[in-house]
Amino acid sequence: MRWFPILCKEFSYTQGQYRGKVREYFYYIDHNGMLFMDDSRMKNFTSCFKDVKFLNFFFNRLKVNNTGFYTEHFPYVSPCGIEQNFVRVDDLPIVYTKLNGEDCDTELVINGSGLTFPFDPAKVFMKDNGRIYHAGPEKLKGVGLLSSKLAIQLSPRIVMEDNKCKYFRWKGEQVLVSDEVEKLIEAR
Predict the structure, then answer these.
(1) Which one of 1, 14, 92, 100 is at 20 to 30 Å from 27 when CA atoms are compared?
(2) How many whole angstroms separate alpha carbon 16 and alpha carbon 181?
(3) How far apart are the C-alpha atoms of 76 and 136, rounded to whole Å?
C-alpha cells in the first residue's frame, strides 16, 4: 500500500485494487515523459515503461480525469476496459521527447511512444523557469512540455525579446511566436 500525503491529507491506494468491479492502477509521468508505476521507488530509465505498443495504447486513451475519483491527486486517467489507470504528472501529461524530420511534415514524438503531434514553430513558448512548451492535443488542455533533452536541442532557435520568447528560428527564417500556448499555460 502506498501512502500519499498531500496538503496534510492522507491518501492511500494499492496497485490493482478494486473499486466495485473496476480495477485501479496508479501511474506517474515525469518532466521527461517517462511513465512509471506511481509507487515505484526508483524512477529512472531502467524502471519506466518502454514498450511502444503499450505506450501507444496508454497515451492514446489518456484524458482529463472526470471520473469523480482521485481527481485531486491524479488529474488524468487512461481507461482500459474495466480498468482505470489514474495518472499524476510532474508538469503535464504530454511530453514531447523527439522531433522527427525538419521538412513540411515535422512531428513531435509523444512520451517516447509511436504517437506524434504536428510541430508548428509559431506555437512554442518558454516559461520563466526555462521549460519549453508547444501546442498539444485538445483533449489534454491543448499543450505539451518539451523534454529536457529536446528543450536543450531546440533552445538555441529561440529568440528572446523583453524576456519573452518572441521568435523561433526555423528553416532559415524567424517565425513570430503566437501567444496561444502562453495563454494555455497561464490558464491551467
Answers:
(1) 100
(2) 36
(3) 15
Of 35, 61, 89, the residue at which a domain comes to its end is: 89
Amino acid 7: pLDDT: 43
For 82-118, the pLDDT digits (tens) are 999 999 999 999 999 999 987 666 899 999 999 999 9
Q: Which residues contact 132 (CB under 8 A, 6 or more apart)?
A: 124, 125, 126, 145, 146, 150, 151, 154, 155, 158
- Please, are residues 134 and 124 in contact by the beta-carbon 8 Å criterion? yes
61-74, pLDDT tens digit by residue? 999 999 999 999 99
Q: Are 27 and 39 in contact (CB under 8 A)?
A: no
Residue 31 burial (10 A CB sphere; 0-12, 13-18, 19+):
middle
Q: What is the DSSP letter of 6?
A: B
Confidence at residue 104, expressed as pLDDT on a 0 to 100 scale: 61
Instruction: Name the residue with cell 505498443.
Output: 53
